[in-house]
């Protein structure tokens, strides 16, 4: 009986724990509903995590509800055990998936590094092949140019050789000139000489006339130049005479200025000396009461005031 009571008490405590857990889940649901506005504007990853959490909460609520019903009816919690085993299996499966994901990730990185390495190697090979193709193209171009140059040289050599052979085997045929041709040549030569003689005579006449005209012009220019030169000489002599006259006048004027300045200086010195002498004599007359200043001798002298001590 006591064991049954203890088992019932354990069941009651377990039920109470389940109820408290259920209440906690309800509180979490209410908080989640309150934060729905925040999660509405979040990213896709966060919304996916939020949906996952809601699904897990609903699963826990269902498990707790079915466990409570089973405890009330059959006094057993097989639903809870099954849920726990299912969660363990899912967690184990998730760990396996994570491990597999890490392995695949590492293998992917290794494969990508190998691919990058192979790509670099292929790029290097392609560059080397491009260089080889460029070198081959240059070699082909050089060979083609050399062959074309040699062919051109050979063609020209063959042409020159053929011309030299033709010249060696050619027979010269001397055809005597005809009398008509000789007459025609003689007439043309005589005409040429006549034309040259006529041109030389015309040029001689032209230069004779030109010489006479130039001589006349030069004589006229010489006459005008000589006339101007004579006028310039006469003008120079007149100006020289005028300059000499003005030079004498300037010398007389300078001597007059010097004499006048000396006379004025002498008069100024004599005037200053007379003024000084007059001033001295006037002072002497005033001090000694002589001449005009005799009345100053009888004038009363002002009494000097004695300062009181």
Automatic annotation (TrEMBL):
Q: Does the keyword Magnesium apply?
A: no
Q: List, alphabetically, the GO terms of the cellular component aspect.
A: cytoplasm; cytoskeleton; motile cilium
Please name the GO terms of the biological process aspect recorded for this protein, alphabetically.
cilium organization
Cited InterPro entries: IQCG
Q: Does the keyword Cytoplasm apply?
A: yes
Keywords assigned by UniProt? Cell projection, Cytoplasm, Cytoskeleton
Compartments, record wording: Cell projection; Cytoplasm, Cytoskeleton
What protein is this chain from? Dynein regulatory complex protein 9
């Amino acid at each position: 009986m006591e064991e049954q009571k203890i088992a019932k008490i354990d069941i009651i405590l377990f039920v109470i724990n389940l109820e408290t857990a259920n209440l906690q889940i309800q509180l979490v649901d209410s908080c989640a509903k309150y934060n729905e506005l925040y999660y509405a504007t979040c990213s896709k990853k966060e919304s996916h995590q939020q949906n996952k959490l809601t699904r897990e909460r609903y699963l826990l609520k269902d498990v707790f509800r079915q466990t409570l019903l089973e405890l009330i009816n059959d006094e057993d919690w097989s639903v809870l055990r099954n849920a726990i085993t299912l969660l363990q299996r899912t967690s184990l499966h998730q760990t396996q998936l994570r491990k597999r994901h890490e392995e695949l990730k590492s293998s992917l990185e290794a494969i990508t590094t190998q691919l990058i390495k192979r790509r670099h190697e292929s790029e290097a090979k392609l560059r080397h092949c491009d260089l080889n193709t460029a070198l081959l193209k240059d070699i082909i171009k050089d060979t083609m140019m050399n062959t074309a140059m040699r062919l051109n040289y050979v063609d020209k050599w063959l042409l020159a050789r053929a011309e030299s052979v033709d010249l060696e085997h050619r027979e010269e045929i001397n055809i005597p000139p005809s009398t008509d041709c000789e007459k025609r040549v003689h007439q043309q030569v005589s005409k040429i000489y006549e034309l040259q003689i006529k041109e030389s005579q015309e040029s001689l006449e032209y230069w004779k006339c030109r010489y006479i005209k130039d001589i006349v012009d030069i004589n006229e220019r010489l006459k005008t130049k000589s006339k101007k030169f004579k006028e310039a000489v006469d003008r120079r002599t007149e100006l020289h005479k005028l300059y000499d006259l003005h030079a004498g006048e300037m010398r007389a004027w300078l001597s007059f200025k010097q004499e006048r300045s000396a006379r004025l200086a002498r008069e100024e010195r004599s005037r200053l000396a007379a003024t000084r002498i007059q001033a001295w004599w006037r002072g002497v007359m005033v001090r000694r009461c002589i001449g005009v200043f005799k009345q100053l001798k009888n004038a009363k002298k002002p009494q000097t005031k004695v300062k009181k001590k």
